[in-house]
Amino acid sequence: MESSEHLENPAEDTSDTLDPKDWDKFRTLAHQMVDDSIDRLIGLRNMPVWRPMPDEVRSVFSNQMPDAGIGPEAAYRIFCDAIAPYSSGNLHPRFMGWVQGGGTPVGMLAELLAGALNENCGGRDHVGIAVERQVIAWSAAMLGFPETAGGVLVTGSSMANFIGLLCARRRMLGANVRTGGLNGSQLVGYAQMGVHRCLVSAFDMAGLGSQALRRIPVDSDYRMNLDALNAQIEADRRGGLTPLLVIGTAGSVDVGAIDNLSRLAEIAARYDLWFHADAAFGALAALSAARRPLLAGIELADSVAFDFHKWAQVQYDAGCILVRDQNSLLDTFAQKASYLSNTSRGLSRGAAWPCDLGPDLSRSFRALKIWMTLQSYGGDRLGAIIDQTCEIATYLARQIDAAPDLSLLAPVALNIVCFRYDDGKEDLDDLNTEVVGDLQEAGSFVPSTTRIGGRIAIRAAIVNHRTTRSDVDALVKAVTAAGRRRRK
Ligand SMILES: Cc1ncc(COP(=O)(O)O)c(C=O)c1O
């Protein structure tokens, strides 16, 4: 039944709505937006990877909020002129900075469809919740988790890792931590030296203090040194501290190393500690038959943080926290609120609601773009893309080894290659920082930098499904040329 049928006399109703008066005009604009977005994807290689924003573009974003709107056509013109050309560049095949996925055309349309439904996925009984549950179930199966598993979609692994830590804290301190706080407990956790900074923040935010995260040395493959871990746990126990959890890294942010997760699970079990895996991008290696064995032991984790927006190429943002027992999330987050009670019928049916599994109440239909991506491409194809990015990274490492002025700074475990221009002269840190700046500002490539063994490295993370061997051949040439140019 149309809503106007409820009105006694619709013609007399003068109330405003934000829907267009002229739907045909709106449809034309909508089609134009979709066409332009597809054209942008088709033409990616003809565009700079990234370009700096000129001052006049920046100034567009310092205006006051308008009292009178300019309409969607004019707003879209600003998007075309001042927004789209200056985006971060991670769609582009030559974007290799940090660990960022390239998105897909399917994910792009899924964002539109999710916006069209405008679901609030905090809870209740509607399809957005069912789709999210399916994505969680698929994730649990992908990582070999048991039937008891549960999870919730979040912004990214920063939030997912924080949630994992809160579950560990709740398990150790019981329900009282939710009302009485830490109450003087001195909890400590353990992760490898190359742990992502978000876990340092998580310790800070959880009230444990960032120093409570013990950073354990790594071996020559950048994996946590297990003897050092055991020694630190023993020392902390002797010192009267309370070991809380062991964090395994599956795909370290700098070099892509994967800790020995099976051994970490054993150590965690021996000391009765929570075992959490930060598998922000590494978890997706489970989709590749060739690389799944690298993750052995992840199925033993109490919680795993990972992202679909990295190696699964889903549009930002799409993170996930998975726990081996959904009750861990409920124990940590569920609250009673009369306006959010479950009922036996109607829209308020069904449990558990996502708002009881994490900190967010109102949530977007984040699951749709993940579901559409997994449905459309399938696990095998995404796994093959993951293999492809690793093979291109290995190929790049070989090209670097063969190049006279380049040197590799770390072994390539997955898809991250750390190297630098090295002509044996002074100031290599400054030189390599400048080389990266030169490439980025020229719009030709976006690698990023990091420090390996105290030295500045150029870091190429091959995540984007569009990147090819020719792209990394061109990167080798461009870095060499930029380094030589700077030496002149
Ligand atoms: C190993 C690791 N952990 C955590 C994160 C944080 O993830 P997000 O940026 O999705 O919050 C990253 C991001 O690159 C990462 O590589």
What does this structure look like?
It is a single chain. This protein is α/β, with parallel strands linked by helices and 488 residues long. Among the domains are: 20-102; 119-364, Type I PLP-dependent aspartate aminotransferase-like (Major domain) (Aspartate Aminotransferase, domain 2, 3-Layer(aba) Sandwich). It is 41% helix and 12% strand. It has helices at residues 23-42, 55-60, 72-83, 105-117, 127-142, 157-173, 176-180, 197-205, 226-238, 261-270, 326-333, 366-402, 428-442, 469-487, and strands at 150-154, 187-192, 213-216, 242-249, 274-278, 303-307, 319-323, 406-408, 416-421, 448-452, 455-461. The strands form two sheets. Strands 1-7-6-5-4-2-3 form a seven-stranded mixed sheet, with helices on both faces. The chain starts with 22 loop residues before the first helix and ends with a helix. The model has no long low-confidence stretch (mean pLDDT 96). The protein binds pyridoxal-5'-phosphate. Residues 99, 156-158, 196, 198, 251, 253, 278, 280-281, 307, 319 line the site of pyridoxal-5'-phosphate (PLP).
Can I get a quick summary?
The chain has 14 helices and eleven strands. It is an alpha/beta fold.
